């Protein structure tokens, strides 16, 4: 059969164009995402690349998060270590790398874009560890002097406000460097970052030998040299990469789902178009098994070539996508794509397997064609549904609906997945049941046409309703695109709105203050806001490892703290009293020695065990601030007043934005918002662009396959314009069918989500669908479909009726 | 022209006098009130080395007779034997293999796989049997139908008559017990029709093949040894001996009037 398959592929390549394009794109996307994921490895931080030997503080005990965190050395221990390391032979200087939050305010607005996990402030001594030279001015020497990056836009000699955890303070710019960062005098830095996690060594002589000698005096520190220095990459970068990887995995999963779906539907479509030819093969003696193998060999042929093209496309596009990810802030600067052979091979084989899997069910059905079908002149489809289609479609639809209902009662953390699975099941289910659903739907949608006298309406209605499988096949990609786009867009909008409602319900506050151009709120911003502003930090326990902690002034309703044992009365005011969640297994009254953010050790007493809390440990805000000068509050609540009056108090220099807590204000974290937006648009772009192409190719094949019908219409007296109009109207009808089904799927999944959100928040949540964006997606589908339809009609009409009969 | 091995042909003639036998064959389409009886207990025999035409008005069941006789459709009742083999108990796969090896087909149109050349179309049944087609056999089959020079052409590059002749060559390449032709000249002009009918006649006369042809054209039926007339799924008349187109047309007209 291989010979026949090869001949078919070579001479009838147009029939496989849709499958080819879908598969090549899918493999391309998967290749790209795989390369990006495998390339996302830790690297030596550029800021430390001037130091051949680094000494890193000890790692905390493992926790559940999977990121390694390092316990800082206290100020005293740092001094001791720096002294010891400086005396090692070959060491020119031992420099503690002090990193803290600092941001210059230029032109009334905080500038630079410090990531919440990667603050830009450093002590001037750290400047010796990096390759950026001072390009103008001099080093900061006294309190109140600062060196900025050239891009900050403040000239030498200018006075700027510098924001730190405490708030803004005036500084004089003494110099500029050719790179990012805010450099303060070492004495100031030592106050802002008392705890140190890295000591950089400048050496004279072979780095390896110095490293050996340094290890002898480093105590609990780890000595890193050469490539091993990449372990010093900030944990923030690891988190960033993790977020990037999540997005890439989502895109890759979507690509696989969409390509199996599209490849299967285009191949099914091709097989339906070739029904007669397959019947002829059966009549002249091909067994069903031979027909199956023929289709399998064809799919394999397409898979082998399309996957190769896809891998090439993906490999070419990956560096470009990598740059885009860096610009979008999803990968750290310096991220480069490396061509990993295993990833390329995996993507290639994956593509071939997808082609074979997609063809399997189709081939089984196609091989059952009765040989007599070859003798029938017209290819009227008699039995669009098979029992397996009923079974699969029915099961998936019922399962999807069950999940919709289930999401109304789902736990908040399962809500998102439940409604996504519901949508996937409904999309696949409806696609399988499409032949049943499409007929009545076409009749309803085209009912207005029957009122007119024109032939077009009747023809469109007739052919779409008759060729149910064809209509269903071409409507499927539209269903997928509109369904997914509506779901994702509506999902993001509804979640954002629900967040606002949830916050209001939880806190009773009228206004929320959020960081806008800063990574978090300083104490000055929190004071100006005038309400509770819980302060997050981290503490280290010998057995539990890094444990998140929140500092509060006093218990208030927004913290949702309920004691299961002990008392919350002194929480916030007792500097050594903590409330803990149950799973820490810390009993009321027990004491624990914790290392705080500055490396100092404190013994705390458990005042209460609480049911649930924003972080496992809650303690006094004053204690957190005392030990973590760079801690920033993610939010402050204003119990009375409006956003306008609050904003007036805040001004612009603190980088804070006040929003009213109402349903449409959203007001979630700006950084989170940005990531969600990027995520949403990547998914929408992938789904729309990808399936758009398949809409175009499927329609193209459909019309080319109907060249004879169209030629007959011409012979029957229809003008070429009329025929093009007819094809355009048919294409529009297909988009309408897909849109109706897609909206049905998306809206029912969203309804489940809305019910679930309302239940978990305890207040009604509005279902928000960004109709303008949905309309844009439908418009794209429509333009693609009509464009592809009329183009192919144009091509088909160039072939004379006589020639097109074979 | 290549001659077929006499021993093989002779062996078949000795064991089975009839290439195809139908015994009380019944075929019903649809169920309940919409059921249509296409064949109503039809019995007919097709002897080796004969050329039989099957005629009848539209809906008389002549196509169904051909489909059932050729094993393309399974009857609802009765028995079909090809070359002495009862088709009833055969599995779909065994039936397909029997069709491939014992039966040749020529349909009205769209007989050929569009992506294969004339040569490849002819070789198709052999390839499906996993036999490596000997180039000489393929050339012989194409020469038989006068198309030796067009072996490398695609169906789109051939005329309607040439396509039918390629289909005929393909039907012969497996040396079948019987060749079924369903309106083989229905889509051809009269010159091409004559050529195809002459070829069918030659198969019977020179090589002892058995041909069963469904047609509504008295001119075509005039080339046969025998004409069976069908109406409402039953055999209503039979004409044998030297046939003329006029005689067939007259009998046909009488049948139409009788209805």
TrEMBL record, chain A:
Membrane-spanning segments: 247-272, 299-321, 341-363, 390-409, 421-445, 478-501, 678-704, 725-751, 771-797
Sorted UniProt keywords: Cell membrane, Membrane, Transmembrane, Transmembrane helix
Coiled coil: none
Compartment annotation: Cell membrane
Superkingdom to which the source organism belongs: Bacteria
ABC3 transporter permease C-terminal domain span: 250-369, 682-800
Protein's UniProt keywords contain RNA-binding: no
Protein's membrane topology: Multi-pass membrane protein
Family statement drawn from the similarity comment of this UniProt entry: Belongs to the ABC-4 integral membrane protein family.
Protein's recorded name: ABC transporter permease
Organism annotation: Luedemannella flava
């Amino acid at each position: 059969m291989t010979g026949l398959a090869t001949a078919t592929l070579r001479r009838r390549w147009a029939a496989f164009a849709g499958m080819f394009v879908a598969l090549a794109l899918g493999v391309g996307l998967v290749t790209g995402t795989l390369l990006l994921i495998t390339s996302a490895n830790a690297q030596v931080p550029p800021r430390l690349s001037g130091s051949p030997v680094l000494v890193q503080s000890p790692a905390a005990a493992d926790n559940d998060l999977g990121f390694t965190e390092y316990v800082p050395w206290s100020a005293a221990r740092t001094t001791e270590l720096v002294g010891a390391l400086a005396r090692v032979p070959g060491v020119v200087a031992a420099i503690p790398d002090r990193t803290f939050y600092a941001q210059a305010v230029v032109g009334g607005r905080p500038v630079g874009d410090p990531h919440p996990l990667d603050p830009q402030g450093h002590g001037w001594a750290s400047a010796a560890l990096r390759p950026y030279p001072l390009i103008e001015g001099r080093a900061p020497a006294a309190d109140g002097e600062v060196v900025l990056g050239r891009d900050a836009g403040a000239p030498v000699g200018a006075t700027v406000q510098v924001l730190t955890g405490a708030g803004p303070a005036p500084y004089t710019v003494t110099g500029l460097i050719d790179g990012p960062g805010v450099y303060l005098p070492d004495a100031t830095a030592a106050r802002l970052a008392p705890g140190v996690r890295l000591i950089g060594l400048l050496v004279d002589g072979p780095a390896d030998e110095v490293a050996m000698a340094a290890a002898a005096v480093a105590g609990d520190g780890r000595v890193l040299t050469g490539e091993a220095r990449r372990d010093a990459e900030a944990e923030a970068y690891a988190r960033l990469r993790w977020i990037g990887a999540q997005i890439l995995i989502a895109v890759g999963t979507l690509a696989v789902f969409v390509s199996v779906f599209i490849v299967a539907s285009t191949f099914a479509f091709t097989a339906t178009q070739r029904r007669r030819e397959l019947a002829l093969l059966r009549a002249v003696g091909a067994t069903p098994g031979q027909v199956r193998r023929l289709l399998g060999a064809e799919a394999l042929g397409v898979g082998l070539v399309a996957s190769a093209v896809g891998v090439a496309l993906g490999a070419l596009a990956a560096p470009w996508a990598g740059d885009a990810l860096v610009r979008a802030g999803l990968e750290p600067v310096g991220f480069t794509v490396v061509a990993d052979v295993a990833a390329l091979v995996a993507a290639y084989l994956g593509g071939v397997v997808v082609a074979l899997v997609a063809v399997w069910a189709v081939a089984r059905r196609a091989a059952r064609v009765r040989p007599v079908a070859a003798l029938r002149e017209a290819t009227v489809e008699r039995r669009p549904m098979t029992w397996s289609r009923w079974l699969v479609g029915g099961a998936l639809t019922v399962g999807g609906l069950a999940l919709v209902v289930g999401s109304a009662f789902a736990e908040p953390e399962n809500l998102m997945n439940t409604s996504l699975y519901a949508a996937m099941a409904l999309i696949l289910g409806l696609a399988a049941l499409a032949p049943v659903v499409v007929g009545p739907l076409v009749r309803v949608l085209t009912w207005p046409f029957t009122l007119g006298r024109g032939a077009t309406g009747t023809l469109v209605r007739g052919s779409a309703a008759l060729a149910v499988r064809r209509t269903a096949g071409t409507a499927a990609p539209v269903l997928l695109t509109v369904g997914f786009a509506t779901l994702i867009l509506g999902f993001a909008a509804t979640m954002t709105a629900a967040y606002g409602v949830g916050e209001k319900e939880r806190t009773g506050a009228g206004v929320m203050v959020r960081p806008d151009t800063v990574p978090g709120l300083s104490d000055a911003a929190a004071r100006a806001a005038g309400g509770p502003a819980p302060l997050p930090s981290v503490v280290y326990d010998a057995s539990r490892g890094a444990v998140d902690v929140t500092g509060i002034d006093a218990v208030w309703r927004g913290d949702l703290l309920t004691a299961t044992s002990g008392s919350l009365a002194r929480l916030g005011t007792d500097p050594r009293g903590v409330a803990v969640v149950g799973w820490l297994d810390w009993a009321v009254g027990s004491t624990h020695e914790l290392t705080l953010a500055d490396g100092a050790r404190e013994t705390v007493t458990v005042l209460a065990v609480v049911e649930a809390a924003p972080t496992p440990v809650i303690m006094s805000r004053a204690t957190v601030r005392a030990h973590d000068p760079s801690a920033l509050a993610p939010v402050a609540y204003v119990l009375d007043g409006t956003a306008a009056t609050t904003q007036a108090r805040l001004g612009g220099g603190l980088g804070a934005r006040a929003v009213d807590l109402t349903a449409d204000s959203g007001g979630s974290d700006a950084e989170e918002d940005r990531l969600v937006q990027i995520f949403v648009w990547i998914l929408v772009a992938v789904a729309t662009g990808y399936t758009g192409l398949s809409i175009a190719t499927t329609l193209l094949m459909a019309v080319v396959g109907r060249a004879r019908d169209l030629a007959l219409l011409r012979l029957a007296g229809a003008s070429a314009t009329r025929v093009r109009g007819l094809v355009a109207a048919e294409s529009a009808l297909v988009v309408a069918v897909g849109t109706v089904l897609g909206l049905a799927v998306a809206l029912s999944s969203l309804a489940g989500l809305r019910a679930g959100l309302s239940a978990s928040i305890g207040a009604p949540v509005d279902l928000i669908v960004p109709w303008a964006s949905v309309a844009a997606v439908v418009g794209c589908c429509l333009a693609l479909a009509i464009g592809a339809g009329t183009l192919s009609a144009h091509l088909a009409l160039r072939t004379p009726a006589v020639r097109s009969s074979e | 022209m290549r001659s077929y091995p006499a021993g093989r042909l002779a062996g078949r003639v000795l064991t089975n006098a009839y290439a195809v036998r139908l015994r009380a064959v019944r075929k019903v389409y649809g169920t309940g009130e919409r059921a249509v009886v296409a064949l109503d207990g039809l019995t007919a025999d097709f002897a080796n080395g004969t050329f039989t035409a099957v005629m009848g008005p539209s809906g008389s069941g002549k196509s169904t007779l051909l489909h059932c006789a050729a094993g393309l459709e399974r009857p609802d009742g009765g028995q079909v034997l090809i070359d002495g083999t009862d088709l009833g108990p055969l599995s779909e796969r065994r039936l397909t293999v029997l069709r491939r090896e014992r039966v040749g087909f020529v349909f009205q149109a769209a007989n050929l796989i569009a992506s294969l050349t004339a040569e490849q179309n002819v070789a198709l049944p052999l390839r499906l049997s996993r036999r490596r087609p000997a180039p000489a056999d393929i050339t012989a089959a194409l020469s038989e139908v006068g198309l030796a020079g067009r072996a490398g052409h695609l169906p789109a590059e051939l005329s309607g008559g040439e396509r039918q002749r390629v289909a005929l060559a393909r039907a012969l390449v497996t040396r079948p017990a019987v060749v079924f032709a369903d309106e083989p000249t229905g889509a051809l002009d009269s010159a091409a029709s004559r050529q195809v009918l002459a070829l069918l006649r030659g198969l019977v006369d020179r090589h002892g093949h058995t041909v069963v042809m469904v047609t509504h054209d008295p001119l075509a039926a005039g080339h046969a040894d025998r004409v069976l007339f069908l109406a409402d799924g039953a055999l209503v008349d039979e004409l044998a001996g030297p046939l003329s187109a006029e005689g067939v047309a007259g009998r046909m007209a009488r049948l139409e009037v009788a209805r």
